[in-house]
Amino acid sequence: TATVPGANEAPVISNAKITNVSRSGYTVTCTVTDDNAVDRVLMPTWSENNGQDDLIWYTANRTGNTYTIEVKTSNHKNDSGKYHTDIYAYDSEGKVSKVELTATVPG
């Protein structure tokens, strides 16, 4: 594979994981890098109960190349069970990458 100087690549999402799962929520973290500049990282989240009726688009907090959100079940009708969090990383030139994660919140 040849690299073309000046060619824009989509952001790279790595180390995406869900931790600290409890009845009150969970933490989502990932590393995002880009050949230019990361513009923003959004993490839409919803519980599987009743579909996307509780969908929230969280803007991730940045520390260096690490992006984090705290999902609180109180923001999602206090649902337990399966949750979906997608990670969308956008760069300054409009390219986007996506990773999908799931967590099971105890009842």
Automatic annotation (TrEMBL):
Transmembrane segments: none annotated. Residues 5-102 form the Ig-like domain. It holds the Pfam family GBS_Bsp-like. It comes from the Bacteria. This is GBS Bsp-like repeat-containing protein. It comes from Mediterraneibacter gnavus.
